[in-house]
Amino acid sequence: MIATAPTQPTNKNLFDLWQRLNLELGNNFDTHGVCAAIASELAEFTLTTAVVGTSNPSQNYFDVWISQPHGRLQQTRWENKKSSFTPMLAQGAAATLSKMSQSPAELVQSELWRLAQDSILCVPLPFPPEHYSYTPPTILCLLDPGPYSSITQDNIEELARHLTVYLDRAALRHRSDRQEIEFATIYDITYSLTSTLNLDSIIAQLSDPVRRSLDVESLSIGLIEPASGDIIFVTQLMGPLFQNMAPIRLKAGQGIAGWVADHGEPVIVNNVYTDTRFHAQVDRDSGFQTHSILAVPLVIENRVIGIVEAINKLHGSFTDHDLRLLRMVSAPLAVAIENARLHTSVLAEERRVKTIFENMAEGMLTVNAEGRVTATNESLLTLLHKENHNLIGQRADQVIKIDSEHGFAHFLEQILQSDDEYPQLACNLILNNNGRTHVPVLISGAPILNEDDEVYETILVFSDLGQIREVERMRDDFFHGIVHELRTPLATILMYARLLREGRAKDDQAKADRFLGVIERESDRLQMMVRQMLQLAKLEASHIQRSSEVIQLSRVFDQLLPPMADQATEKGLTFIQRLPADLPPVQGVEETLYLIFKNLIDNAIKFTLSGTVRIDAQTEGKEIVVRVKDGGIGIPKEALPNLFRRFYRAQSAVEKGIAGTGLGLYMVKEGVEKHGGTIEVQSTEGEGTTFTVRLPAAPQ
Ligand code: ATP
Ligand code: MG
């Protein structure tokens, strides 16, 4: 537009302005764009400086456009109290204000008055102010319009009415755009919710976008604990103030959250202090300040599983629109939480079953409907001598070969056909390595059904009968051993007692003494045996892990060695001990450690007729090594493999009449192994024996 001299306002002129504005604003759907266009069009048209200021949603500042007549447009931001717009808005109508009428204080403060020479023509938008509008409070000003301006106090209100339409249109579009963005965000959230089964990551994904969409300070999710009905809040969401607090727990029905969970209805509370349901304790504990709450129940199949709360709307109050948004999130959120919970419990169950399966002493095998292996455990692989094989996917009847008439496939069939009582089969596994190795087993099987009662897999348990028989045999041996060992001294005692009663030593005191001596010695032996057996039973039943503590070996030796040394010297032996002061401790049971070394030293003294018994200890790497060495009778080579068996005594010991039950070394070995250690023996007949015990040092 060419600048012309000021002209009288005419209708023609105004019509031009209308047309220009229609052209400029017709396609402008952005509030700020509309404000800028208004400012520059009016400045050009009136040849005065035009100012448009529009307030932000929370109304604490104005975005301002200042346009000079010849195209210079400036955009800035003024704080409310410095802008001078607020009194103009309050007027609610067009006004011409003169600079003279402003107080000096206002003039100094005002950004606007700094630009004007004499007067300002202003009008509030939307116009009329009482008109229902989406436009934020806005002011249009012409600075120093002059007497010939085509816009005057008379026609500016009509202009304002006209501009309100454009501003409203832009605000509406902004709103619907924003809603579109919100809905898109919600869509994204719900989409991503369905793609994860991890509760933490669901909450992490959800929190920021929802908080932003709702324009709130904080979002919290409370889940109902099924057992108590209490609502427990997910602290992760609640911000730094809650980080070091115990999880927040509301009793059923307590607080606004409790009310929502109880009633299954959402609620908007824009001022919590006027609501009697509000539970202020949480704020008192955390230092957080709650003002407003929007809470929605999380519902699955008519069952409330928790609530989601938006806390403290940042600008303005919660509206029905916010409620709709949060409801949209709450439905998929409830499903996602439920899925995550189910998934977690399924995982836990799966782990439990897997642990049992893997740690069973029996061999375990599952076979699918096609007869292929779906899972095996270590014990089965060991039983089949296939430790490093992967059998998954192979045909079960190829993997399991048995010497039964009908074969393994037939047994699988039998399991499927039987209704209640599942079959068992005692047979021999034929191992592949040479086709001749047989392992006696008992196979039991049962079908696993799916929810439609169809057979999904078959589970089979292989018990190693060889091992079971071995254990039974050992137990029988032990009892036979006990009976035998007890019978011998008892028979002797009985015999001498009978001789005495029959008067065979009647007038012979020396003979009677000898008989009584035998009875006494055999009774001692019986007593010793019973004591040993009790110790043994105790040892076998004990669990080192359960009763274990950190033990200083030096303490054990301090108790044990002095009486042992006395015993040795009394017998005329030399007793040497070499124990460093800084032996590391071991993890274990003191009584058992005492028993181990007592038996070894006891043997060394017992089986040494003359010479030296020596005990020394040292640290080797992470082990403590204790050696008990004697220069005694030694052990025949052929006796060495049996030395640690129950009741075993070498022929040489028996022949020399050295007393004992043959339980000592067995107990020593048990004890050492329970401590995670090892024992070995070196011996030369006639020269002497060395027992070496290695125990792991306790971890620091
Ligand atoms: P117990 O310890 O039950 O009273 P024991 O000493 O005969 O009886 P073990 O300690 O189990 O039984 O030892 C088994 C056998 O090993 C002994 O009978 C003996 O033949 C042989 N033996 C053990 N220690 C020695 C040793 N230091 N020197 C020679 N022989 C030994
Ligand atoms: Mg012994």
Explain this structure.
By secondary structure, the protein is an alpha+beta fold. The protein folds into 4 domains: 12-178, Beta-Lactamase (2-Layer Sandwich), CATH 3.30.450.40; 196-346, GAF domain (Beta-Lactamase, 2-Layer Sandwich), CATH 3.30.450; 362-468, Beta-Lactamase (2-Layer Sandwich), CATH 3.30.450; 542-696, Heat Shock Protein 90. The chain is built from 21 helices and 24 strands. A 6-stranded antiparallel β-sheet has the order 3-2-1-6-5-4, sandwiched between helices. A 6-stranded antiparallel β-sheet has the order 9-8-7-12-11-10, with helices on both faces. The protein has a 5-stranded antiparallel β-sheet with strand order 14-13-17-16-15. A hairpin with a 2-residue loop joins strand 11 and strand 12 (303-313). Helix 2 (31-46) packs antiparallel against helix 7 (156-193), helix 16 runs parallel beside helix 21 and helix 19 (590-606) packs antiparallel against helix 21 (664-674). Residues 1-9 have low confidence and may be disordered. The protein binds adenosine-5'-triphosphate and magnesium ion (MG). Magnesium ion is lined by residues 599, 602-603, 660, 664.
